[in-house]
């Protein structure tokens, strides 16, 4: 909300018109030449389909025609997350993406973030699925078709986020030739190559711990809480044996205790 004039003024903004929710009124102080922000909370349980909210400035000012604003709530406000997992279950018989799904449900339930989650396998994911996604999670996917991989890379370069999790089902040859680019290592979706030793791409921890954690990074800042988070105390019995030279814009956000990179961040285009 903005205003013109010579003195600041006190107003209120009323949110109304949402069935089943009482009007919410928030006070606001307006200063000439500055924008002021007001925030309203809408319960995640409210079905916003077809709803239009009414925002009203109170009391009315000298130009009442702009004191009322209609806001269409039937729009995709939530982040669209695409979870891609293997065709076959994990070694324990459960879907590989189970824990990621549980984590995203917890985020949604906490009302800190609205997430629209779609789950596909590496063979059923379509170009439309990838184009719609704001964030793509590859959860231990063995391999992807050239077409799906091309669509994924195009979407990431245009601004989507990609989180790539390794797992026991992945095919190292696919990751090292398709996701990692040996001739242009700074351009691949995988920033480091999988070092294959004795036909294994994973290392056995004892169990391994995380070190050199960049706590100031937005992704990890909230995980440092000694009461609410067990992230600093996590133990890893097996992890991907990554090696090679990082690109100049790559950042290692955490390492295992043998200095193997555990979490690597890489910018790709706008993604």
Structural description of this entry:
There is one protein chain. The chain is of the alpha+beta class and 271 residues long. It contains four helices and 15 strands. It has helices at 98-109, 127-132, 146-157, 172-179; strands at 9-16, 24-30, 52-58, 68-72, 79-85, 115-121, 135-139, 161-165, 193-194, 202-208, 210-211, 236-240, 242-243, 251-256, 261-265. A four-stranded antiparallel beta sheet has the order 2-1-3-4, with no helix packed on it. Helix 3 (146-157) links the parallel strand 7 and strand 8. The longest helix has 12 residues, at 98-109. The model has no long low-confidence stretch (mean pLDDT 88).
Structure described in brief:
The chain is of the alpha+beta class and 271 residues long. The chain is built from 4 helices and 15 strands.
In terms of DSSP E residues, the strand content is 25-35%
Number of helices: 4
Q: How far apart lie the N and C ends?
A: 31 Å
Compute the number of strand runs.
Answer: 15
Enumerate the strands of the largest sheet in spatial order, edge to edge or round the barrel. Answer: 2-1-3-4
Report the principal-axis shape.
elongated
Largest sheet: 4 strands, antiparallel
Unreliable stretches covering 5 or more consecutive residues: none
Provide the residue-averaged pLDDT. Answer: 88
- Helix and strand element order: EEEEEHEHEHEHEEEEEEE
Fraction of helical residues: 10-25%
Structural class: alpha+beta
Radius of gyration: 24 Å
